[in-house]
Specification:
Blueprint: H1 2-16, E1 32-35, E2 37-40, E3 45-53, E4 58-66, E5 72-79, E6 85-89, E7 97-108, E8 112-121, E9 129-144, E10 149-152, E11 155-157, E12 159-164, E13 170-174, E14 177-186, H2 188-191, E15 195-196, E16 201-202, E17 206-211, E18 216-219, H3 220-229, E19 234-236, H4 257-276, H5 279-300
Parallel strand pairs: 1-11, 2-12
Antiparallel strand pairs: 1-3, 3-8, 4-7, 4-9, 5-8, 6-7, 9-10, 9-12, 13-14, 13-19, 14-17, 15-16, 17-18
Amino acid sequence: MKKTAKILSLILSLALLAGAFGVVAYADGTPTVTVGTAQASAGDTVAVTVSLSDCAKFSSYTIHVTYDSDYVTAVEAKKGIDVMLYMPNLSVNNKKEIAIVGGDVNNKTDNGVIATVYFKIADDFPGGVTEVPLKVTECKLTEYDGKNDVAFASQSVDGKIVISGAGGNVIWNGGEGESELTPGTLTDEQAAEYKNPITNEGVSGGEYYVNEEEKIAIPAADVEAGVKNDPDSFKVVESDKPEVPEVITPAESSSGGDGAGEGGKLNWLLIGCVAGGVVIVAAGAIAVAGIIKKKKNAQAE
């Protein structure tokens, strides 16, 4: 009975932890949640870790991370430290905010990666170098004291995604007209045939935007910075975007009959719950029910 009450206490704590808590600075040695950093280019999917350190023990955690970019989307959040209940939510209140919520019926003593979040970079990233801050807006850890899950002092460290690249070919508007440049790598032997038209000097092996016919090569970093800061000299080659096929929902499909229609309504209801953050409580309730059922079956045997 006590175990069941503790499980219920845990899930109630996880639900309450979804509320807002400010991030406060603490001294060294304080349990710390750190969001990592990743380098990315257009079209990439990159992994960012959310890690825990300097923590003697915990029973649950609630971490919210926001990212404000039209070119970045969170697509998955895999569990790290093994806990009984793990409930990530990739969009809180339809915002670009990730909620990572988890916990256990017993205090955990593990430190390390709590979750690994995967972000997709848009294929149409316009170029240049862009830093997307990954800001921790909520960070709360609790410890089970024998009766309740009690919050204790913790701190957080923000992360970021650095997106670079021009996203494709670039037009350089030189003194003698426009030249189309393609990103590529030159060996020292290949570079001997090229010249940087901006400095009018030779180049060595490395990453460049090149025009093979004109034998010109501009360092990739200069081109990427120019696309962002000097639009009169550099611009990305525009390409036609492929048409997006029409998506037919189960309710609109002609196959499946009434059952398919009801299934479609259920799917959209679940999607709505996820988008609104209700999944945190719902998933916890399902997990608790499963745990209690297993314990009853074990006792019956």
